[in-house]
Write a structure and sequence with these properties.
Layout lengths: L8 H15 L1 E2 L3 E2 L5 E2 L2 E2 L2 H4 L2 H18 L2 E7 L4 H11 L8 E5 L12 E2 L9 E9 L3 H12 L3 E10 L4 H6 L5 E6 H5 L1
Parallel strand pairs: 5-6, 5-8, 8-9, 9-10
Antiparallel strand pairs: 1-4, 2-3, 6-7
Helix pairs in contact: 1-3, 3-4
């Protein structure tokens, strides 16, 4: 198997879609975190925690981050964003560009010590430009919570990336808040 760095962006994308179809996409009724009922489910962690899936995601996320430029860190709401941010951070040290550090946004503030929502702050200068990531986007509300916490910590959110856009309103949710949701894979690619 070739290194993900040797694949074209199109090849990496095609391989990611294949892994998502095999590991993550399920045609069944499910209640989503938004409370909505859906006839399909995307268990993103099955792909983000898969060795090749993580490498492909890291590569494609880094490509999108490099296209914006000047972004020093990538992170999002724990638990879904953690393997994505880590994969992108590791891959960023292999492509010849500047390193992109990972950070984690807690759902609840730490109950001791600093009481902070953000882990990894020591790697980020105040005012740093960051990317927020998420494994699957439905409404956009979860990822936006990470945006708000990153901003409250003094960071500039320059970009929001999801691995899979379920195409159920998240893109519009971010557009209404003057942000663009970028997607690696769209729902229809998994249904075909």
């Amino acid at each position: 198997m070739p290194s993900v760095l040797d694949l074209s962006p199109q090849q990496a994308h095609q391989r990611l879609v294949a892994i998502l179809k095999e590991k993550s996409y399920q045609k069944r009724k499910v209640v989503l975190s938004s409370g909505r009922i859906s006839d399909f489910y995307v268990d993103g962690k099955q792909t983000t925690l898969h060795a090749e899936g993580a490498a492909l995601i890291g590569r494609l996320v880094v490509d999108k981050i490099r296209a914006v430029g000047d972004i020093v860190a990538v992170g999002g709401l724990t638990l879904g964003a953690d393997p994505i941010a880590t994969a992108a951070s590791v891959l960023s040290t292999m492509d010849g560009g500047p390193p992109i550090h990972a950070f984690i946004v807690r759902k609840e503030s730490k109950g001791h010590g600093t009481g902070a929502y953000i882990e990894g702050r020591d790697n980020l200068p105040q005012g740093a430009k960051v990317t927020i990531v998420e494994d699957t986007s439905t409404t956009g509300a979860s990822a936006y919570r990470a945006v708000e916490r990153a901003r409250a910590a003094g960071y500039e959110v320059a970009q929001v990336i999801t691995i899979v856009d379920r195409q159920e309103g998240a893109a519009q949710y971010f557009a209404d808040r003057d942000l663009t949701l970028e997607s690696l894979v769209m729902r229809q690619e998994l249904e075909n």
